[in-house]
Write a structure and sequence with these properties.
Layout: H1 41-52, E1 63-70, H2 77-92, E2 101-108, E3 112-116, H3 124-132, H4 143-155, E4 163-169, H5 181-190, E5 193-200, H6 208-218, H7 223-226, E6 227-230, H8 240-247, E7 289-292, E8 341-342, E9 351-354, E10 387-393, E11 398-404, H9 417-424
Parallel strand pairs: 1-2, 1-4, 4-5, 5-6, 7-9
Antiparallel strand pairs: 2-3, 7-8, 10-11
Helix pairs in contact: 2-3, 4-5
Length: about 425
């Protein structure tokens, strides 16, 4: 037998054959377990709006909403502008009218200022303009007094309408505040005010745990639905849709997406007929209104100035006189007092709006007011290039620092305290 030869090349693959006949059907398997029910239509809509807030707006159901805004030293003027942007973005997505949402704003630092009242309601644009012109105060953090002032606003609101407060703060409450935040928060909860709180503080801050505990006391229960923590003010915009979805809810009432996505459906809630306030502010005017609890105040204006008496004395409000606090440089020189600036601001009209029907106080005697820029109101101007300047406060006959925006404003603006005192202080 000879040697085995070399293997030849592999042949090509054969053609695919025809399919065979199908086999007999097998036995029917046992039924599986019943699955969980799918999401309801309302749950799907809720998830969509909480993720992206696509077109979310508050429905035109009655709502009383008050923003309580921290303007203390730790906030800073640039972050303060971000807070204004956040507030106006929320207001843009709400229906503002005497029949739907009414907006109030309490600005606070070492004093509290009512920028917009629930009693006198203007258009959405008027409220946004008033917010845009809010001055940066840059002092202490009297959160307790601010919550108390917000509670006072709600007492004059429409009866039977849901009351919601949104507090934005970045620090612990000042211990010098006579109105302790624990007491005023309990008072607000007792009066049926739903409190949402945005706390701005980095988790690495050594005061974070104490700050978190304080925020939880202020907020309504449950905390997971009413407390929101962010590391910095630049993250505020991420909360717009979340907070709006919470604020717009009442019981099972939902604010749905536009009809182009889903037909609008709203579950009715029992809301008693509301008393509608019909007092409107003039279009395009921004009026700041001084208010006083338990007394009717008369408008006091000097010939040199259109500004009314700023520091009305209210013995019922337990707020320390400004000039008794070590870091306060302006305010009422006598008695227990506070300033409350209410409504939307106007360069041509400042109003007193009584919160009760008790007898008015006697008008104060005429005050000696220096001439020139000293008699003009504090005006930080519309720009945002903030620098520290000095201004004269005729009520206290003293000079104080303020944040000047860098443009416009008026002549009540001095480079240093000495210039202010030489120009304006009288004896």
């Amino acid at each position: 037998m000879g040697d085995r030869g070399i293997s030849g090349p592999r042949g090509k693959k054969g053609d695919k054959g025809n399919y065979g006949e199908p086999g007999a059907a097998g036995r029917l398997g046992t039924p599986g377990e019943k699955g969980a029910p799918g999401l309801t239509r309302e749950e799907v809509i809720r998830i969509i709006r909480e993720i992206c807030g696509c077109g979310l707006k508050c429905r035109e159901s009655p709502l009383e909403l008050v923003f309580v805004i921290d303007s203390s030293e730790t906030v800073g003027p640039e972050n303060f502008e971000l807070v204004k942007d956040f507030m106006n973005a929320l207001i843009d997505r709400m229906s503002v009218s005497t029949e739907a949402s009414q907006i109030g704003v309490v600005l606070y630092s070492h004093v509290e200022m009512v920028v917009a009242s629930l009693q006198r309601q203007s258009s959405k644009e008027d409220i946004k303009a008033a917010i845009r012109r809010m001055p940066y105060l840059g002092k202490g953090t009297f959160t307790g007094s601010a919550i108390h002032r917000a509670t006072q606003l709600f007492r004059a609101s429409r009866p039977g309408v849901r009351k919601v407060a949104v507090v934005i703060t970045d620090g612990l409450a000042d211990p010098r505040d006579i109105m302790q935040f624990e007491e005023t928060a309990i008072e607000a909860h007792y009066e049926g005010i739903e409190m949402f709180v945005v706390g701005v503080m980095n988790k690495t801050d050594p005061l974070y745990e104490e700050f978190q505990a304080e925020i939880n006391v202020i907020a309504s229960d449950p905390d997971e639905k009413h407390v929101y923590f962010i590391d910095d003010f630049k993250s505020l915009h991420t909360l717009e849709s979340i907070i709006l979805s919470r604020v717009c809810e009442q019981d099972d009432t939902l604010a749905f997406l536009p009809n182009s996505i889903f037909p609008a459906v709203e579950i009715d809630a029992d809301i008693p007929d509301a008393t509608h306030f019909k007092e409107f502010l003039e279009e395009d005017n921004i009026k700041w209104e001084h208010t006083k609890e338990a007394a009717t105040a008369q408008t006091l204006q000097s010939p040199e100035s259109e500004w009314s008496d700023e520091n009305l004395v209210d013995n019922d409000l337990l707020v320390e006189p400004w000039n008794r606090l070590p870091d306060i440089t302006f305010g009422s020189p006598a008695g227990t007092g506070m300033t409350s600036i209410e409504g939307t601001q106007s360069p041509t009209q400042w109003l007193h709006d009584p919160l009760s029907t008790q007898a008015p106080n006697s008008p104060s005697p005429p005050r000696l007011v220096p001439v020139g820029g000293c008699s003009q109101p504090l005006d930080p101007g519309p720009c945002r290039q903030y620098v520290v300047k000095w201004y004269y406060d005729p009520e206290a006959n003293a000079c104080a620092q303020f944040w000047y925006g860098g443009c416009e404003g008026n002549a009540n603006n001095f480079e240093n305290e000495a210039n202010c005192r030489d120009s304006c202080i009288y004896t």
